[in-house]
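pasting for the record
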Amino acid sequence: MNTGTKKIAYNVGGTVLGALLAALSIFGIVQYQNGQDVPQENQQIINYNS
């Protein structure tokens, strides 16, 4: 394997690994967001004396 072929192989391997890590990160964030069971509360207090 010459230097040019090694360079291409490392670039392709790094790209695939980076894309896989990005996909796993996005999937993990989405799963975390969907796992939150906290109900939304809206408590609006209007004070007219200020």
